From TrEMBL:
Name of this chain's protein: Signal recognition particle protein
Domain SRP54-type proteins GTP-binding, residue spans: 101-296
Full protein segment contained here: 1 to 296 of 448
Species this protein is from: Acetoanaerobium pronyense
Domain remark text: Composed of three domains: the N-terminal N domain, which is responsible for interactions with the ribosome, the central G domain, which binds GTP, and the C-terminal M domain, which binds the RNA and the signal sequence of the RNC.
Spans traversing the lipid bilayer: none
Residue ranges of every copy of the AAA+ ATPase domain listed in the record: 100-247
């Protein structure tokens, strides 16, 4: 489960602090050294760790904390608040257009879980009473189109593809037109991925963006890749401009570095977390609940 190692280490460190009763600045500093190590081991971006520890320390060594009746408890509260803040503080919702259809474009590297996530998102939106249409723009892998068709069916969503058409931009435009004509309120565009970020991919994605004007460009990224996930998010944001992130495979990520770093590094919120292979395995990302998971 996510934050396994981090949770144990932080809870032990903070328990010691609580056990001490009265605290000195030195006690706080020693504890923050441990917190720093635990975060680095969890693969949190080093700059994020540095800023985090600095903030917690500054807040913790204030007189109102150290001279309070329960200083250890206060420090735990501060750590909790700052962890939540690191992940965005409040839940970041999908930006639904007041004028349907809302266009959601999913981007990401191959294998990140894009196609699966498209189905999960469609199901999530269906449960909210929306009628989503999924558009298959991954023209390079025929299997990807079939896979999207299968998940669309399972989710009870409408599926659009244009067999034989080798122009992803054209497919996206045609799909959107159809959704408008038929009155669907959400359009999810599943785009091609590559193993690595390359110029051709970015050009194609930029062109789709220009033509379908998505309300949301969501990057699907594998949380198990840790720091890499952060770098990928940064690159996609620099070249394409993303609105948020869907973090996948949280069920297999024991460290949690990506979850803790992405918002702080890219300033883009994590909107959903995927926690398994089944279509139901998608949850809105709640920073405060995530923080509480770490501190128990
Ligand atoms: P794409 O290339 O980005 O479209 O990736 P796919 O949607 O084909 O997913 C790649 C693999 O990751 C598949 O085997 C999925 O079942 C798996 N996968 C996707 N999301 C999750 C998740 O949240 N948890 C787990 N355990 N597996 C996932």
């Amino acid at each position: 489960m996510i934050f396994e190692g981090l949770a144990e280490k932080l809870q032990n460190t903070l328990k010691n602090l609580k056990g001490k009763g009265k605290l000195t600045e030195k006690d706080v500093e020693a504890a923050m050294r441990e917190v720093k190590l635990a975060l680095l081991e969890a693969d949190v971006h080093y700059k994020v760790v540095k800023d985090f520890v600095k903030k917690v320390k500054e807040r913790s060594i204030g007189a109102e904390v150290l001279e309070s009746l329960t200083p250890g408890q206060q420090v735990i509260k501060i750590v909790n608040e700052e962890l939540s803040e690191l992940m965005g503080g409040v839940q970041s919702k999908l930006n639904l257009s007041s004028k349907p259809p809302t266009v959601i474009m999913l981007v990401g590297l191959q294998g990140a879980g894009k196609t699966t996530t498209a189905g999960k998102l469609a199901l999530n939106l269906k449960k909210q009473g929306k009628q989503p249409m999924l558009i298959a723009c991954d023209i390079y892998r025929p299997a990807a189109i079939k896979q999207l068709e299968v998940v669309s069916e399972k989710a009870g969503a409408v599926f659009f593809s244009d067999e034989g058409n080798k122009d992803a931009v054209d497919i996206a435009k045609k799909g959107l037109e159809k959704a408008k004509t038929l009155g669907y309120d959400i359009v999810i565009v599943d785009t091609a991925g590559r193993l690595h970020i390359d110029e051709n991919l970015m050009e194609e994605l930029s062109s789709i963006k220009k033509n379908v004007k998505p309300h949301e460009i969501l990057l699907v990224v594998d949380s198990m890749t840790g720091q890499d996930a952060v770098n990928i998010a940064q690159s996609f944001d620099d070249t394409l401009g993303i609105d948020g992130v869907i973090l996948t495979k949280l069920d297999g990520d024991t460290r949690g570095g990506a979850a803790l770093s992405i918002k702080a590094v890219t300033q883009k919120p994590i909107k959903f977390a995927a926690i398994g292979e089944k279509l139901e395995d998608l949850e809105p990302f709640y920073p405060d609940r995530m923080a509480s998971r770490i501190l128990g």
